[in-house]
Here is the input.
Amino acid sequence: MNKTTEPSPPNLHETNGSEQKEIAVSFQNITKKYGNNTVLDNISFDIPKNSVFGIIGPNGAGKTTLFSIAAGFVKANSGNAHILGTNINQISQLLGRLSMLPQDANFQAGIPVLEQLIMFSELNGMTKDQAKHASMEALKIVGLEEIAKKSARALSHGMSKRVALCQAFIGNPEVIFLDEPTAGLDPDNARSIRELIRQYSKNKTIIISSHNLAEIQNICHHVTILDKGKLVENSSMEELVSAKNIIRVELTDPLTEQLYHALTALHCTSELHQTGACTFNLTIENTGRKEALKAIYSTMAEQETFPKSIQEGESLESRFLEVTGGQYDGNSST
Amino acid sequence: MSQLNRPGGLTALAVINFIYAAINCLSIIILAISLISINAADETLTQITAQNQHTSNSFKDDIITNTYAALTSSIIIAPLLIISGIGYLKLKKTLGYKIGNLYALLSITSSSILIYYTPMGFTILDMISFIYPLTTLLLINTTFKEDLIK
Amino acid sequence: MKQLKTKHIWIIAKYHMRFSLRNGSGIIFLLLAIITSLLVSSAFIAPAEATANLAKSSLAGTDQEIKPSDFINEIGQSKYMITAVNWLVEEKDQGQYLLKEKPALLSCIMLVMLMLLPYLVCFGSFNQTSGDIANRGLRFLLLRTERSNLYLGRFLGTILFCLTTVIITILLLTLYIQLKLNIYPGTTTWLWSLQGAAAFFLICLPIIALCSLISCSIDTPFGSLVLCLLIVGLPSLLLNYAGNAIRVESLDKLWPTGWQFGTLNSNITTITITTTSLIAFTALFLWIGIKIFQKRDL
Here is the structure.
């Protein structure tokens, strides 16, 4: 971190047109190197308050490193970061207002989970009784009150993840970083964690990193894409996937030439971009969404071709691959 | 699954139990050999003069009594150490908690009795025979109580 | 903020002591320290008891009264005690002071324990942070408190645990010597034990601080233990050897173990200098350790 010049905290209110948004987290020119390898290269962006913010990127993009810098686990080579107006060098001043689910941190083996949660809560400023009550409540929320007396070593991967998530929510923090909260979980556990995130996203700023792009697209209001340590995209989800004028279609059979010409000849469509043998994006204009969908459906019916799915907006995955230079085959990996 | 739930301290207690059990087994062998040697030394005692006969006989009786007492104590304590050690590893209430308490109390009692009747009385090395049972008693009734009783 | 810092340090210390017992390292250290002290004590006390018993039995049946204090000189001037003290303590004056003016038995036991304690302490303090750094468990704590609080809390917890062990050890020895042997005046024994306990604690301080430093630099507990034992012992040997080779006295004072026996001296200035040096070593190792801990990635 640059110690000699201490930049002033960022303006916590960013203006976006007529709407003034409060900033919860601000990264300014963050650079991190390990030897000759630049893991993060001059990263700057802000995270609005009370939003669910996604940070995505290929493996090795620097997501976990950025989270680690925000949490103070790792020191950046240069740049600064502020959370709720506090420099991350004085992170302990936030005391209970910031929490994190680290990607690969483990509880102490052999010690009951409840005791460790109580210790964390006491450090957050609670008394012993308050800490015990808050820890039990947090375990109930994640449905794990029966394992309170078990040691961390005795828990399955899913349980460990839920307990780690539970410590992130103890004490009602304002900013929560979740590093791959559903990684390695079965669908049922992953779904319950997503529900928990949705439930607790009100009045909190939640920052999530995940490889599950459908999950990010469903939950997050904003998204940042990192690639090889650089920030390649930073916008709201709506802007990124251009929900308003793109319709994604997946057919049961490959797109025929006849259907292609029929769809492109429609007044409401301006462009057809084929993304796979059975998938394509239609850019609509000159009309409303409903009219466009009606016209598309009837054209496909005339051609006796029936869609497997029709969704509004581009998929986050296709935009992600486009931005990071990857190849999109139209098949979602999630 | 219970092995994953077991704190490292209970594993340490179990290992120390097994070491103590091995030492007890060795002492059983040594004490048994001592008894045989003492009885075999009967012949030489007849050569001692009458003046020293009384002293030698009472000394010999004391030694034999103490050896039998120590042998009995070791024979009882050794299995309790092994069983309670297994109980700690498996986190069992009866095998671990109850037998562990029984071992500690019996060990303290037998050590006290042996020291009382030993001609030399209480020595500093005898303290070692109290330290581990007391530590066991304290730990399994406080730190590890919930793990064993559940 | 200051109140909060103290509270955080205390919370971390309290849980570190509790968890070290549960993890087993605390139990091993406690038993190792007590059993070692009892074995060392028996090496000196058993011959003394034999001497006393022999004297008593030789006077049995006579009207002569045997006072325990009659044996003080015999015990203090026995060959094995003089050999032990001369081997451990270089100054002859200090040797005489320890054997004649202070309870000789306690002096010998305390000298040997002071020699062994740095190595024993390594077993109780090698894993202050290394295990949690390896499994990244510290990350849950780093969000809730400053790194310095974490470091000092773990250090304080280890110190308190060691202090408890030292107190138990000295208490057992003193009670035995006073109640069973009863060869020294009560006040003298207890005061000398108190000074011995202070000496034990003072030599533990820089060693625990050094182990703290090593523990926060190494990511494996076993590696930390090995390094602790090596770094505590090797410099001491090398400095002693170098000092003898180049004929420079007190070269071993460059390392904490060189000050082991200074707190059991007759000269108050020596005691003061020794105490100050050990505390200075502690402060130095703590400062370096905190600097490393604050800068390293966790």
About this structure: The radius of gyration of chain B is 19 Å. The interface with chain A takes residues 1, 4-9, 146, 150 of chain B (CB under 8 Å). Residues 2-149 of chain B form one domain.
